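Escalated from tier 1: glutathione holo job.
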Amino acid sequence: MITLYGGPTPNARKVAIALEEMGLAWRLEPIDILAGDQLTPEFLALNPNNKSPVIVDDDGPGSGGPDGAGRFVLNESGAILLYLAEKTGRLVPAEPRARALCHQWLMFQMSGVGPMFGQNAHFSSYAKDKHPYSIDRYANEVSRLLRVLDGRLAASRFLAGDDYTIADIATYPYTLRQAQARHADFPALARWSDEIGARPAVQRGMEVGPARRETIEGGLSGLSDDQRSILFGDRQYGG
Ligand SMILES: N[C@@H](CCC(=O)N[C@@H](CS)C(=O)NCC(=O)O)C(=O)O
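Tier 2 regenerated the structure:
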């Protein structure tokens, strides 16, 4: 059994989609980042970086690791996707070029799309002070990254080539809203997004904690002072 610690956020959804696609037995341990679940001693013991997702695999590799026989704890959504792909032999191509391209687009998501989309949401929606330079900076980066994805998907059915892979799974939850809202600007991205979104396993994975979907993805403009302290203030940075 694999336990996913997460909630309705793009990074946890990637993992839920992969678990569903791979047909692995899993359960959700809900982490409400607005309530500060990621800052409890229990969660920090799993991930000192106070971020979801985390998985605990009761049937991990080897046996006598520091986590106890078989039990394996892992964080960072990209590393989790790679771990699950290696565990099952699924959703990473075997052919060396396609495999390297899958890794390339996974890293593109982890180092580019994730951080830049996150900062865009922060400065355009979450920040109380509206700082035009920062808003423009990240909005421009989001548009640039969408152009790169659109160009790739105009030439290729999926990011790594002909096969659907963990690179697509990593990118879909982050780009869904933009693909829908800006389909005329990014038609290949929209075509790809529709195809991915039609997959039953993707639909099930996207339902992780649906109650909070609008609050988190729609911009946390209605944050209370306590929630701001948890995510962006004293409780996050107080030491
Ligand atoms: N690079 C990390 C990022 C994880 C991340 O930013 N998680 C967010 C939710 S999407 C979180 O837990 N935020 C809570 C916090 O920052 O306190 C990954 O890909 O797993």
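The chain has a mean pLDDT of 92.
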